[in-house]
TrEMBL record:
<dbReference type="Pfam" id="PF14226">
    <property type="entry name" value="DIOX_N"/>
</dbReference>
<dbReference type="InterPro" id="IPR044861">
    <property type="entry name" value="IPNS-like_FE2OG_OXY"/>
</dbReference>
<feature type="domain" description="Fe2OG dioxygenase">
    <location>
        <begin position="220"/>
        <end position="319"/>
    </location>
</feature>
<dbReference type="InterPro" id="IPR026992">
    <property type="entry name" value="DIOX_N"/>
</dbReference>
<dbReference type="InterPro" id="IPR005123">
    <property type="entry name" value="Oxoglu/Fe-dep_dioxygenase_dom"/>
</dbReference>
<keyword id="KW-0479">Metal-binding</keyword>
<keyword id="KW-0408">Iron</keyword>
<dbReference type="GO" id="GO:0046872">
    <property type="term" value="F:metal ion binding"/>
</dbReference>
<dbReference type="InterPro" id="IPR027443">
    <property type="entry name" value="IPNS-like_sf"/>
</dbReference>
<keyword id="KW-0560">Oxidoreductase</keyword>
<comment type="similarity">
    <text>Belongs to the iron/ascorbate-dependent oxidoreductase family.</text>
</comment>
<dbReference type="GO" id="GO:0031418">
    <property type="term" value="F:L-ascorbic acid binding"/>
</dbReference>
<dbReference type="GO" id="GO:0009805">
    <property type="term" value="P:coumarin biosynthetic process"/>
</dbReference>
<dbReference type="GO" id="GO:0016706">
    <property type="term" value="F:2-oxoglutarate-dependent dioxygenase activity"/>
</dbReference>
<dbReference type="GO" id="GO:0002238">
    <property type="term" value="P:response to molecule of fungal origin"/>
</dbReference>
<dbReference type="Pfam" id="PF03171">
    <property type="entry name" value="2OG-FeII_Oxy"/>
</dbReference>
<keyword id="KW-0847">Vitamin C</keyword>
């Protein structure tokens, strides 16, 4: 393998490289990226090479115009003036960034810490215990694997994940791994409350009645994707997560205190610094679609590192996937002669299916629905 001056990766003897076989061999182990480290690898397999990103990981941070908004929700329900101030800040963040962090959101720090620890304990279980959860069956409510789009994406990411589909039809408690069972059930309840008041604020920020987005079913479904980014022996060659936008209405993200998340803002990568006790909020593709581009779904990525494992829990709000006939298009109240629909309507199930089938290939799934 050679890294050229412009940061491109050129693998030696590429004619000998059978990508499909290497992917299958990796997947068949059912041990994920962490399994590679347990085998003692010092060089990452070629399936993880991100040639377009190598040596291009600089970020612009620390100056006001490139600082992720942090919104304090203290006093949200006690003072009308404070509530309006918070709505205005949320509106600004959604229209200009698509990303913001919130503090004083109502979830206790102790609960968030237990969630991070529970997910860490799952990913650090004995291999044979984790294997029983390994699956690529998207119909399962609980599954563990490495890269949901491993078979489609041009490059694999350096991460393992456990997926929990928690609403509206949650799994039986005994289906959830014991090491994180109780805390994930409790965290789901707490996140659903946060999601509810966020959708109310987003509705008002769009000039709609507070219950508009919830009445549309935007908060009915909740899926948790719990990532474990192991230390990487060659972080300059790969990414923890490729550049992408989320295929939901809204994402509530819990991070540990390890850096790595970046958002693309004004064609510059900006670090999302860990803020103790904060939740990271970002607009998903489906909210951009129904808001007719009033709010936008920002591209973001996660860097790999060789210092310490990183853990995050992404909570994806979407409608009930089983309600497959319900169509979502630009909200009628937001349209006018000067602002016609920019997207065709779709069911959430069809959108998620298209998003997952396409994989994280560097293009937006929204383009497929644009008029």
């Amino acid at each position: 393998m050679v890294v050229t001056e412009n940061g491109k990766v050129q693998a030696e003897n590429m004619s000998d490289y059978d990508r499909k076989s290497e992917i299958q061999e990796f997947d068949d182990t059912k041990t994920g990226v962490k399994g590679l480290l347990e085998k003692g690898v010092s060089k990452i397999p070629r399936i993880f090479f991100h040639d377009q990103y190598v040596l291009e990981k600089k970020s612009v941070s620390g100056i006001p115009e490139y600082t992720i908004p942090v919104i304090d929700f203290e006093g949200l329900n006690k003072d009308a003036a404070k509530r309006k101030e918070i709505v205005d800040k949320v509106k600004f963040a959604c229209e200009s960034w698509g990303f913001f962090q919130i503090i004083n959101h109502g979830i206790q720090a102790s609960i968030m810490e237990k969630v991070i620890e529970g997910i860490r304990e799952f990913h650090e279980l004995e291999t044979e215990v984790k294997k029983q959860y390994y699956s690529r069956d998207i119909k399962r409510k609980i599954s563990f694997n490495s890269n949901f789009d491993l078979l489609q994406a041009p490059s694999a990411n350096w991460r393992d994940s456990i997926y929990l589909n928690m609403a509206p039809d949650p799994p039986e408690p005994e289906e959830i791994p014991e090491v994180c069972r109780d805390i994930m059930i409790e965290f789901t309840k707490q996140v659903m409350k946060v999601g509810s008041f966020l959708f109310q604020l987003l509705s008002v920020a769009l000039g709609l009645k507070p219950d508009h987005l919830e009445d549309m079913g935007c908060a009915e479904g909740l899926a948790l994707l719990c990532h474990y980014y192991p230390m990487c022996p060659q972080p300059e060659l790969t990414l923890g997560t490729s550049q992408h936008a989320d295929g939901d209405f809204l994402t509530v993200l819990l991070n540990d205190q390890v850096s790595g998340l970046q958002v693309l803002h004004q064609n510059q990568w900006v670090d999302v610094p860990p803020v103790r006790g904060a939740l990271v909020i970002n607009i998903g593709d489906l909210l951009q679609l129904i808001s007719n581009d009033r709010f936008f779904s920002s591209e973001h990525r996660v860097l790999a590192n060789n210092v310490t494992p990183r853990i995050s829990v992404a909570c994806f709000f979407r409608s009930d996937l089983s309600a497959s006939s319900k169509l979502y298009g630009p909200i009628e109240e937001l349209l006018s002669e000067d602002n016609p629909p920019k997207y065709r309507a779709t069911t959430v199930k069809d959108y998620v299916t298209y998003y997952n089938t396409k994989g994280l290939d560097g293009t937006s799934a929204l383009l497929h629905y644009r008029i």
